[in-house]
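Data availability (excerpt). The following record was deposited with the supplementary files.
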Amino acid sequence: MMSVTEVERPVPEEPGALARMRWAVADTWVVARRYLLHLVYKPDELVGTLMVPVLAVLLFGFVFGEAMGAVMDAPGEEYREFLMPGLFALTMAFGIGNTTIAVVTDAGRGVVDRFRTLPMAPASLLAGRSLADVLSAVVDLAVLAGMGLLVGWRWHEGPLSALAALGLLLLLRLAFTWIGIYLGLVVRSPEAAMKFFSLVFPLAMVADTFVPTDTMPDWLVPVAEWNPLSATVIAARELFGNPVAANDSWIAQNALLMAVVWPLVLMMVFVPLALRRYRRLSR
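Predicted structure:
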């Protein structure tokens, strides 16, 4: 009687941490590239995003510039230098609307479900979305900075300080991107997403964006000073060497610190929320 010899098959080894990280980074770039190509093939979305800040430069820089400058006891050109960092931050904040609508649209079209069926890192879809939004924000800032140069805005503290200011603005955009991703996974329609986006407008207004906080009513000043946008705006003005309104509050005196702390705190809250919501959708 013949004996049957069992052949042990080798058990495939689990990929190490470094291999998993390379896998996740590669998948994240694939997803980000998809979203960036979408912007290339549909530039109307990018143009629509840039129209608001570009029009704001013209409107507040020239139409209302003299009046706003009179409130601050500053000539029009000085007010435009004060204004531009606020518009940079405003553009970063308004990007939350595009993120939310894009995520909820992808979910409604089944794009999220199709990505989940692919052998890719679980979080790469959301990470790719955030990377694509930050890279598109670089284009936003470049266009807006070019517009600012045309109307007389300049930076005065050297290229490294200017790059640091742009880095803080992109950090703010990254934080708002994750808020938008979470909202896009929660709401069920683009119409509902627009309702959340409408809340960003008063957030941008109640900040050091267009006028100093000391020109606001006393009860509104603490709200404006502790607004995450205010910290980034003041820090950007300092790094660009643009006019900064006198303010003795702790938050204004530590604007550079808070311009880093606020986005990190927001991401500590909304990144886990977005990932948890995504995992629930995957069940």
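Summary of structural features: The mean pLDDT is 83.
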